Each structure stands twice: as C-alpha cells, then as structure tokens.
Give the backbone structure.
Amino acid sequence: MIFRAIVVSAALLVSASAAYARDARSEAKSQVEFGIRMAQNQLWKEAAYRWQKAVDIDPTYAAAWNNLAIAYEQQGDFENAAKAYEKAVELEPDNLMIRQNYDLFKEINDRTKRRNDR
Amino acid sequence: MTARSAATIASLVVLCGSLACTSFYEIPIETPIQPKMDVSGFSRVLVAGFLGGGTDDVDANLETVRLLRSQLRSKSSLRVVEAEVLPLAELAAKQGQASGDSNGVAASPGGAADGQQSTAQASTELRIQNEKDLERFQSIFADVAFWKKLGEEYQNPLIVTGTVLFTPHRDAGMVMQEREWYDQFGRRRVTPVRTYMERKGFILTPKFIFIDGRTGATLYSEQFREEVLYNAQQNTPALSTYFELMDKLIPSFLNALSTQKIRGTRVLLK
C-alpha cells in the first residue's frame, strides 16, 4: 500500500515537473517570438529585454541565448555577447546556425582584441 | 520510380521536416566598434602631411592627405582643417641640418656645386624608396616642439601624420586558378588548377600617427600592411591600386577616432 502511494506520488511529481518545463518553454518561446518581431523592427533594446526574460524563464533554451547574444553584439557589448554565445553553444553544440553566428562574432571580437592589445 | 528519385524525395521530406521544426530568421546587424582614442578634447583635426615614398607614380604624401581629409569630413564629427600639405621629408631634412644630424639626412654642401646640381642632389637625398630611407626622417615625429608649434598655428587640433610607403612588387610561382569548362551535357564546370604565374602589384605600408596639437606628444600610432598582385600582363594604374589598398585600411584608420560599424547578418532562432 505504502509502496503504491510512493510510486503514484513519484509519477505525479515527474509528470508535474515535465508539465512545468513544457510551460516554461512555451512561455519563454512567446518571449523569443516577440523579441524577434522587435529586432526585425530595429527595436534591439526591447528585443534584448524579451530574450533576457526568456532565458530567465528557461535557462536551457539555446535559441534564446543565441538571440540574446546577437542583441548584445548589435549593442557593442562584446563581453556579454561572448557569454551568451558560449551558453548557446554549450546547450546545443551541434546547432550549425548558432555555431555560424558565434564564429562570425568571434572574428570581429578577436580582431578588435588584437588591435586593442597592439 | 527509380531508386535515385526515391532518395531525392526522401531527402526533400527530411529537409522540409527539419525546416518546419527549426524556424530561423536572417537579420542584418551593425556591430559597433568603439574608437581606440578619446578625441573628446578636440574639435578640429589637421591631416598635416606624411613621409611618403616607394614609387614615383603616386605622390603618397599628397594623395594620402587628400583621401584622409575627405574621409574625415564625411565620417567623423571633427572639423577638418584645410591647410597646405606639409612637405614632411623636406622639413625633416632641414631639421636634420639645423641640428647637425649626422644620420645622412640632406646636408647639402653650401656653395660647392652649381644650383642645378645641388637641387638634383637634394631631391635624390629626399627620395624615400624603402623602410631604410624612411628611418632617416623618422625623428621628426618625436620633435614635440615642432608639433606643438604647428598645433598653435591651427588652434590646437588633433594632428594626423605618419609614413606611407607604396612600393612596386613582383612575384612568380604556383597559384591556384579556376578553369572553366563545359561537360557533355553543356553544363558549366569549374575546376581548380595549379598554374605557374608571374604577377606584379604593389605593397602599401602606412603608419598613422596621431599627435596632440596642444602638447606635441604622440597619442597613438598604428601601422598597416596591404598588398595586391595582378597578372603580369594586366596594366593597372598605380593610383587606382593605391586607392584599392587604402580602401581596405580606411575603416581601421577611422576607428581610431570614431565608432565604426561592421555590417553583417546573423540568424535569429525560434
């Protein structure tokens, strides 16, 4: 009897956390979509705010980190852009689009660093 | 249905499926690069002149001054001072004479030869063809009093000066070329081929020096190197090659004084 109760409550817990994760992702996704529309209208600060919100809601959402990195890059904040790109690559190492964005960013960032060191 | 067409359809289905799963949006961005110098203390900029040389086909001093002034007029917030271009090599030579410099800078023998001969000799001595020739005149950039005096003349601007070597260059060796051909179905094909080629062109090595017109001290300097080689049979005028190479450096030059934006595209993901 006790065993059955434990199994049932564990199953409930698992399904609740899965549902919570699904909810978090769908909420984060709506923030990401809104951010994309903002960026397409050149409202980069608002876009960055939305994507920041998305990664706060769901820190495992690689696309949101990728977009946030782009927004930082557009605003000249290379330090935060690098951190956000690294997070996106860490979450989805096989995503070629994230990798390509990161490579393009690194090219500019490395060139700027080299010139500042000179 | 052949196996080939079945494979094509299958790969299309997979592609459509993956595109449906991943939504992406290509977006143009402009990455701002912060300037390397703080020029907030200046309202004017004087592109004074350069130690130029390498070839007689281009007056590197005059062309560089003209080009930088026009770029600064349109792409910087500083007011560009319109002044005579300084013949920096001559001035450096005169300074060398005055200070009894024994580095070999134009010390024309007084009254020994006739006028024509001494003029010809002086112009030979002022000729700059390589890095070694440049070294004889470089001390002028460290002459704080000279730049301070120039600064006072033009109400303490930011002074831009430096050296520009634009030297002809030849090279021969194996290069990769693309050979175009048409297959039996009339389709265009391109194959890389290694070919021996003689090429000629130019090397441009400018050094931009930024001097504080209020104190005469050097604030910042940066050296660049660009080169281009063409097929030896191709006849490209030296001046257009000069502009082609300078075009590549101008954003870096401007970035010393003002924020520059690098245009590119990134992919936003959903």
